[in-house]
Amino acid sequence: METLGYIVTDRKINGIGGFIRQVSDMDLADPSKPILIVGWKKARSHEAYRTIIEWRLDDNLYWTFSKNENKSRYEDDLKKFIDIIFNNILNNIKYYYINIFKLKYNNIKKIYNIISSIEDKNIYISKDMVYIPYEGNVLGVSLSLLEFCKIPKCKVIDKIKSIGNARLTDDSNEFVRKLSVYVKDNRYVIPYLL
Question: Which end of the chain is more exposed for a tag (fewer CB within 10 A), N or C?
């Protein structure tokens, strides 16, 4: 799983997903990802710190009080930081719904070949949709629509399972349930977070 952001703290923070890495020093964090510094003393020592009022220090750099310094602000800022991380993901991933009614047979075959050729992929099924990551995008296919075209869901799922290194995940996965709290109705990003 890719690290999507960093929290610089001296104490372990429970309840944040594996997508946010906790480090003890700024040098261990990737500056191209969002970073949250926990603790007023730590924030004050950073060159970008200006005032106690501004929680955003730089484009990807934020700070908050530690839990002991100001619990309510800490909790609010932690939630805001996680929202920023997921909004970045949502803004950077394009979703394409594949309407098989509008595609010619040759194009359907091309899409199948694209899906077959993807190596090491996480394919996600939610309700009647299949979400497949491809080159920074996500392709969505409706299983209900395929059923309407007399293509059984189980046959499609079996075909996906037989493709190379495909890992099929659905809503019963505990990690997916945790992620769905953050991504809300934008479930198409889940394959990138697995």
Answer: N
pLDDT of residue 124 exceeding 90, the answer is no
User: For 35-76, what is each residue's pLDDT tens digit?
Assistant: 999 988 888 888 788 888 888 888 889 999 988 899 999 999
DSSP assignment of 18-82? TTEEEESSGGGS-TTS-EEEESHHHHHTSTT---SS--EEETTEEEE--TTT-HHHHHHHHHHHH
Q: Are residues 99 and 79 in the same domain?
A: no
Q: Give the number of other CB atoms < 10 A from CB of residue 110.
A: 12
Q: Are residues 54 and 110 in the same domain?
A: no
Q: Are residues 126 and 49 in the same domain?
A: no
Residue 175: domain span: 94-193
Number of domains the chain contains = 2
DSSP string, 156-171: HHHHHHTSTT-EEEET
Q: Report whether 138 contacts 95 (CB < 8 A).
A: yes
Q: Based on the fold, state whether residues 137 and 162 are members of the same structural domain.
A: yes
User: Quick one: tokens of 6?
Assistant: 């960093």
